[in-house]
Structure formats: structure tokens, C-alpha cells
Input
Amino acid sequence: MLAYTYLEKGKFALQEKPEPVLQDPRDAIVRVTLSSICTSDLHIKHGSVPRAVPGITVGHEMVGIVEKTGAEVKRVKAGERVTVNVETFCGHCFFCQQGFVNNCTDPNGGWALGCRIDGGQAEYVRVPYADQGLNRIPENVSDEQALFVGDILATGFWASRISEIKPGDTVLIIGAGPTGICTLLCCLLKNPGRIIVCESRPDRIRFVQTHYPEVLVCGPETCKDFVASQSAHGGADVVIEVAGSESSFRLAWECARPNAVVTLVALYDQAQQLPLPEMYGKNLTFKTGGVDACDCEEILRLVSEGKIDTRPLITHRFPLNQIEEAYQLFESKADGVMKIAVENTGAGTSVRPEKNEVPAHPEKRYTPEHISQLAPQEIFVFGSNLQGAHAGGAARIALEKFGAIWGQGTGLQGQSYAIPTMHGGVDAIKPYVDEFIAFARANPGLTFLVTRIGCGIAGFTDREIAPLFAEARNCPNVVLPESFCQIIQNL
Ligand SMILES: NC(=O)c1ccc[n+]([C@@H]2O[C@H](COP(=O)([O-])OP(=O)(O)OC[C@H]3O[C@@H](n4cnc5c(N)ncnc54)[C@H](O)[C@@H]3O)[C@@H](O)[C@H]2O)c1
Ligand SMILES: [Zn+2]
Ligand SMILES: [Zn+2]
Output
């Protein structure tokens, strides 16, 4: 099989290797369908991970299909789609029992895959302690949606979990690389008062502004003053440092208010200074990495429910036989690259982006900023009066942002589709919904993002409206609000 291999400092190469075999009854063999490249892989390449063993296959971010399991594996079986955890852990030792799986005392405990034992930038991977290291991917979650669950998303989830975020807090995240963005997604679930992302690269600032318009953004030079101006007590209540550059550690504690929590996710190349005289009286609590990646089941559930979506991070795709090029791109940070999906398609096959398979999307996508960023084939579907307009939020957004024409009838206008909801009961709405579904079927090249039509000023409830869309279950290009999906699923 093909396996991307660490040869010596500065040198990786794609090599032909034998397929891995079960070595222990607790092992599983996984056929890798999709893998990714992580900043830590670059650390190995640059020789700054002394534990990394020359000759090993690299890669510790992957999903795949279980090929074989050892006799003692109980939680997964052959044929199941799974995420693979970056960490190897026994589940029984003192540290595992307390969830500190990064410190598992097994000789291969912690980050071993793609570092001390063969990893997943290959066609197959052997996963030790498969009951701990593999998690089944729910039916409605695609491989691309699950790709980061075992590594950077687990890291973001862990960072947000240990940072003691309370409602109303000002949270500062330093660094909007892929790991910073995963941290941001998990912090959003904690409902803090506001999140500020500090980033130095303009392309990444734009990435945050485009995808997460509800988040405040600043650069490192203005960060301290900006954070103070956005905080009730002179600084951030929680700071999460995910940049790992020369000055970002200092920036982290400087922006924190007295008694704040400062979580250090970043790995530093150099020792950092803790200038205690300058910090005197700040009474900070520091928390340090690495990640305890033991929440993958919960993370997969959140992905399945549409509450976490890391797909925007996948900016590029390459087949495994072009992984060399993928590394060059990832390392150069050129072309707006965030993360690369490496597909095992067999030699020479080109890779097509997957289409949006999620049936539901979270309501937060309906912010005006998000809607104004709709892709050309995406259509915003809102409730209207018989003239195709009303004063409700969704219609106004459609009007102002992308060419819905006020009072020009129902149906498709620009990038919006109006469904009348304001002229009678639910029965009067039904024919318009049927007409809409027929229209969507006839236009498979368009994707329709349906808002909670009728549930705003028209005054209906989700329970009344959702059943009208039951037929849309079989329309892959109709994306319904999560609340509608849940109701339809239980019909
Ligand atoms: N603790 C863990 O277990 C764990 C897990 C995964 C990643 N990490 C670490 O997290 C860090 C981030 O990983 P990544 O993959 O997102 O890397 P990345 O290099 O892509 O992202 C870092 C971002 O920080 C920005 N940055 C640098 N200095 C800055 C400053 N002073 N102010 C604002 N922004 C600044 C960079 O422009 C970049 O966008 C790395 O240090 C990585 O090793 C740790
Ligand atoms: Zn990693
Ligand atoms: Zn253990």
C-alpha cells in the first residue's frame, strides 16, 4: 500500500509498504478513506519532535472504515465508518480513569499514531486499543464532516471545556489557524457574552469575518486595548492561546483580567518567560496542553445535530498520490489554505468536493452577513405575504442583501424564494410549499436554504409548519432548519 513516510529530518516520501496486520487482540485495522495534514506533522518534518521515529508512516487525523478487529474489540466491527483518535489510551490506568488520556501510562500512551507507530497518511492504519481509539460516525455525518473530530476538533473541544467559560464572559482566542477555529466553534456553544479572535494574517481575518460574522476580530497590535474596551473588568475573562508564536504567550496573559483563566493550547518552539513581578496581583490561572481527546463521541453527536460544522476549514483536496504537493501548499500557507483533505481514491483519480449532505443547518446561518455570502447556487427561502414580501426579518434580509424584489410576487426572485405564509391558516400555505418542493426537484443544481417560514410574525409554530415539508426529506437539495428536521423525523 502507499504510505507517506518520515525518512529523516526535512524528508518525507510516499513509499510502498506492506498493509498493517493485527498485533494484539485489542487492535483494529482501518481502511483510511480521508486523512488530513496537521501542523504537528510539520513539526516532525522539521525534526522538532524527538520522539518521532524515522521510517514511520505519518498522519494522525483520519477517518475510515473498519477492515478487521482483534478478538477483544467490542465497540466497533468490520464495515463501520469511524473516526480515529490522535491519542492511544488504555482506558484503565490512573490517568485514563480521570479522563487525562494524553497521559496514559501505556508505553504507546498519548500521541503515538504517526509519530512513534505508523499513522494514517496511508491506505490502511493499525489502531491499538480500538475500543478507545475509534468512534462510530453517525449515518447523517459525512467523512468530511468527521475528519477533524479525532485531533484538532477534539483539541478545540477540550480547550473550551477546561477554560471555565461562563455566560456573559468575554473570551479572547489568539490565533485563527485551523485549531483556533475549532476552538472558536466549541466556545460558541458555551454562549459567552462575546468572543474576540486575534489574528495577524489578513486572509485568516477574512476567513473569520466571512464564516463567523457574530465574532469580533482584531490584530495583535491593537488587541490589548480592543479587548479592554469590550470587557466589563479591564480584560478578557478567559484567554485561549492557539497561535504559538514568539509574542503570543505574552499577549495572552497581558489581555487577561485579574483572576482570569488563560489556557495554552499552542505548542512553543522555545521556552516561555513567566515574568511574575509584572504579573503580581493578576492572580491568573494557567492551563496547559496537550489535549485529552476523550470526548469524540459527544463531538460526533454535536456534528450530527448540526451544532458544529468544520467543513469550511477544508479549503483544498488532493488524492493520496499527490500528498507531496498537498504538504507544500499546507506549509506555504498560500492560496488561503486552512486544511487539506487527502482522499484515498486510488492512483490518478481526481477528487471532487462532496456535496452538502446535511439535512439541517443551524439557525445561526441566517445572520444577514452569512446570507449575503451565499454561494451563487444557494437560494434563501423565506416566508412572505402574497406579494412576496413582508416586514419580517428573513424577508427584509432577502430584500436588502441580494435582490429579492419587494412586492413582486411569490416564487424565485434573485437568490431568494418567497413562500406566502400570511393569508390564512396552515392549509392555505400547503399548496405553496408543494409548489416549492416541485420547483426544487426541477432545479437539482440549486440548493435551497429554508428559514423557519411562518414562525416569525405570521405566528405559526414549528410543529404546525414542519410537517408541510415532510416530502422534502427525499430532496437532497432542500436544507431545512434543524427544528423542522427534528419534527419531521418523528412523524
Ligand atoms: N495542545 C494540543 O494538544 C494541540 C493540538 C493541536 C494543535 N496545537 C497547537 O496549536 C497551535 C495552532 O495550531 P494550528 O494548526 O491552528 O496552527 P497555525 O499555525 O495554522 O495557526 C496559528 C495562527 O496564529 C496566528 N498568529 C501567530 N502569531 C500571532 C499573534 N501574535 N497574534 C495573533 N495571531 C497570531 C498565525 O497567523 C496563524 O494563523 C500550534 O502551536 C499547534 O502546535 C496544540
Ligand atoms: Zn494534529
Ligand atoms: Zn491509560
Summary: Confidence is low (pLDDT under 50) at residues 347-359. The first helix runs from residue 39 to 45. The domain at 2-151+294-343 is CATH 3.90.180.10 (Quinone Oxidoreductase; Chain A, domain 1).
